């Protein structure tokens, strides 16, 4: 079965990694969408050495996310900023490839951050943990200093997302929670659900992500306007760089 992705000229085939390679993640194959190692099935173009996690390849072109209710987020294959990189508003880590972006607000999310489940269960805590987009207990009469992560014991920066239990004032970095979390519900589920069933249904449906997330896909004029704005921004950056180059050449010819 072949798959066509908007960011690659060739059709992509499903790559099934050997069990030993998948278990060790030492195969040297990295996702072209998120730049992280691939340790499971993936979309692949061997000719171009182009690979995508299934969740990156199936990510919707646009979505509405509760962390940024003002505008839709558009999936970009690369950052449009002059620096060629972005800082994720969810985890604070930089990125240089796929992102969900609001160009009007300069708001950016890694694909995996955008698809994070809203509620999880984790062996580190007895209660379910909710995804929070900032300080999780603004009304609590506790010290204003940040909490320590329940796994790595480093401080949690409340400027970024975390998983928390409001009953116990317990927090986890999203990066610490991810490896062993069990999803309970996703952003669009509206309630608890069977994680295994959600994952199986997602794998069977084109256009859904591998981890069962079902963000609201947007197909309207707002998306077209955002894409046109980003295209114009990119052309403006190129024109600016070209003008600087030509000015430099003209000055050097006068010397």
Write the layout of secondary structure elements.
Blueprint: E1 2-4, E2 11-15, H1 19-24, E3 42-45, E4 50-53, H2 54-57, E5 62-65, E6 68-76, E7 86-87, E8 94-95, E9 99-102, E10 107-109, H3 111-114, E11 119-122, E12 125-132, E13 162-165, E14 170-173, H4 174-177, E15 182-185, H5 195-204, E16 216-217, H6 221-254
Antiparallel strand pairs: 1-2, 2-3, 3-4, 5-6, 5-16, 6-9, 7-8, 9-10, 11-12, 11-15, 12-13, 13-14
Top keywords for this entry?
single chain; 255 residues; alpha+beta; 6 helices; globular
Outline the structure in words.
It is a single chain. With 255 residues, the protein is of the alpha+beta class. The chain has helices at residues 19-24, 54-57, 111-114, 174-177, 195-204, 221-254; strands at 2-4, 11-15, 42-45, 50-53, 62-65, 68-76, 86-87, 94-95, 99-102, 107-109, 119-122, 125-132, 162-165, 170-173, 182-185, 216-217. It is 24% helix and 26% strand. Strands 10-9-6-5-16 form a 5-stranded antiparallel beta sheet. Strand 7 and strand 8 (94-95) form a beta hairpin. The protein is globular and about 70 Å long.
